[in-house]
Amino acid sequence: MVGLRGVGKTVLLDKIKTDAEVSGIQTIRIEAKEDQSLPGMLAPKLRQALLRLSRNERARANAQKGLRALAGFVKALKVKFGDLEVGLDYDPEPGLADSGELESDMTELLETCGTAAHSVDTALVLFIDELQYVKESELAALITALHRIAQTQLPVTLVGAGLPQLRGRTGEAKSYAERLFDFPEIGPLSGEAARDAIRKPLAANQVGIDNDALDLIVEKTHCYPYFLQEWGKHSWAMAETSPIRRSDVEDASIIAMAALDASFFRVRFDRLTPLEKRYMRSMAELGPGPHRSGDITDLLGRKVTDLAPTRANLISKGMIWSPNHGDTAFTVPMFDEFMRRIMPGTDWKTA
User: Fold this and answer.
1) 13 & 162 share domain
2) In the predicted structure, residue 13 carries a pLDDT above the cut 70
3) SS3 6
4) Based on the domain organization, do 146 and 93 belong to the same domain?
């Protein structure tokens, strides 16, 4: 699993998924959503994978069993998960993934899928982005199933990505999760890697860039990959001649920041309630963070306990996370700067 304090995870997942498909591995790609259940998202994708496997003579019987297991899974859980809709190609097999108990049914379902993949010497890989949005009970069921899969050595695995609280959420769902998964963290690039990310594509197009212009891009973007793309794009568009100069980057910075404010940052801001906006603005007043929860609430003249539900809602929405007990940090880089721009002055303290 991948914990990301920024952006770029979608590109990473796509690259891994493409490499897997080139190797002939069965892949399932899901982007988790707050308002959708994991069974509802997973069932249609598993159906597609099993139908693909059923075209192979060696896997046909096991794939058809997997489709019967899926039919039982959907039928048994449809009352609990109203969004669980999938076309059923086979009748359920009584007693197979149809108990209505999510953990045991998901385990049986993934075991049958793993058996089908194993019969043709391939694997099934689940790619789940925004994994932090999966409800704890559903995440626990998925972890339980994968734990059983690991014990039986069937070829099913998970590549998940999400915000930094993902490690903690998996541990809360199942205590053994940290032993089951690796959790590499992907954040900003190193300074030199950030420079290469700008310099090398330009050089490939016979365009140069002055060192002071490159230094300014690194400074403005804090070395986050997506922001490097934005500054690189706008600096390219702004420059009339090669090499790109510092003045080009200064002009491009105004456009890049305005574009981020209008889309990347604003989309997140618009999801917040008035009190959540004030909480985030209080955090921004203290800087990029992380900050102690008490310091944040002190600026609002409130107690930590009063605003604990607000903080919990912000964590649930993926706006903030807790790197350590009692600490709070933004999940999106440079969000403190945006909050100060969109809520200037001091009126937010008493709004």
Assistant:
1) yes
2) no
3) coil
4) yes
Of 294, 299, 304, whose CA–CA distance to 339 is shortest?
A: 299
Q: Are 224 and 198 in contact (CB under 8 A)?
A: no
Nearest C-alpha neighbor of 48 from the set 86, 93, 74: 86
Domain edge (last residue) among 122, 153, 186: 186
**N-term to C-term CA, the chain:** 40
CA angle 210, 215, 218 (to 5 degrees): 130
pLDDT for the residue 18: 60
Question: What does the pLDDT look like over 284-293, one tens digit per residue?
Answer: 999 998 999 9
Domain final residue pick, 241, 268, 295: 268
- How far is residue 213's CA from residue 21's CA, in Å, rounded to a whole number? 40
CATH number at residue 230: 1.10.8
- When pLDDT is averaged across residues 75-84 and rounded to a whole number, the result is 83
pLDDT tier for residue 214 given thresholds of 50, 70 and 90:
very high
Beta strand 291-292 pairing with 320-321: unpaired
pLDDT for 229-268, tens place per residue?
A: 999 999 999 999 999 999 999 999 999 999 999 999 999 9
Burial of 16 (0-12, 13-18, 19+ CB in 10 A): middle
The set of residues, in sequence order, having a beta carbon less than 8 Å from that of 277 and lying 6+ positions away, is: 269, 343, 348
The domain tally of the chain equals 3
- Mark whether 102 and 30 lie in a shared domain: yes
How much is the pLDDT for 12? 52
Query: How many CB atoms within 10 Å of residue 181?
Result: 18
Domain enclosing residue 154, as ranges: 2-186
Strands of 291-292's sheet in order across:
291-292, 327-330, 320-321
Question: What is the percentage of the chain residues whose pLDDT exceeds 90?
Answer: 72
